[in-house]
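Sequence only, no structure available. Ideas?
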Amino acid sequence: MTSLRIGIIVGEASGDILGADLIKAIKARVPGAQFEGVGGPLMLEQGFHSLCEMDRLAVMGLVEPLKRLPELLRIRRLVKSHMLAWQPDIVIGIDSPDFNLNIEKFLRQRGIKTLHYVSPSVWAWRQGRVKTIAKAVDHMLTLFPFEEAFYRQHSVPVTCVGHPLADQIPLEDQRDAARAELDVSGEHPVLAILPGSRSGEVGQLMVPFLETAQWLCRAHPGIEFLIPAANAARKQQILDIIASRSQDLPVRVVLGQSRKVMAAADAVLMASGTTSLEALLLQRPMVVAYRFGKWSFKILSRLIKTPHFSLPNLLAQRALVPELLQDEVCAEVIGPLLLEQLNNANHRETLLAEFRDIHQGLARRASDRAAEVVLSLCGPIDA
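Reply:
I predicted one. Tokens follow.
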């Protein structure tokens, strides 16, 4: 093989992080490797060629993607035709299973090796999808050990690589350094509020999160709030919602820096997602919340087969942190739970010890292990 060609398809920010780290790990072994497909800004910094903007794939729920269906189908056709013409040695779909598995199955049937990185929540709902996955991929890379066990039970080739965040985030507490960089005094308790990275998430969660902040100001005078916005558009959306609610709150909205904001905080209120894992790795008590569109939730609530949805609870296989859905996402429910996270020192000490144990179990050199699996599937390579 004279030139290694790798297709990668990513649909959101968390996948862009994984994709960029994977590209770095592969290039360290095969400097001349080429990467094309759909990727985000971090992947582009690594020399990745993207066929379209990654954000065009970032949709949520079951009903909401229908509004964007024509565009999504057009992008899918573009990716399929490009990969057939380019003939990569392997195509890697990172997360975004509803978009990627169809492409992976199509390409695998035409003789191109395929790998999926980040398991869909097939162990939690729609378990029959594992049959589709078995037809679509030559190998599955999972981030968490409980996922690997599920695929082994269904005879799908799988490797648990751990999570890159567990490799990147140190076990030592980063609070003092984060507060210094963000100019946070630490004289008062600090709550980080993360309403999500997508417009729909912010629209669903920002108002009840602000109402919770008001509730906490009354119950815990002096508390301060930091809100990291995923990008400039989300920052403006958050500022507009704050202005429309006429909130007189000690709140600061910053662009990006979500990890630094969580590290500076005493506790975190957040949308469910990868950031809940970051909060765990940063050893921050948290309350995790999520709201779906009305019809999406009606469909999903009938299909889910797991008692938990937040990553800390899934990893612990029990209710380690409070998690709330739909109508539970309101100030009267969230407020007391956050007070418990802030004020109960014994609970906090026990919780953080469990967080550290999980952290150590996930630190497995994820990107290096993922790169090794990818290259083993590609066969002999001339570096």
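Residues 148 and 160 are 6 Å apart (CA to CA).
Hope that gets you unstuck.
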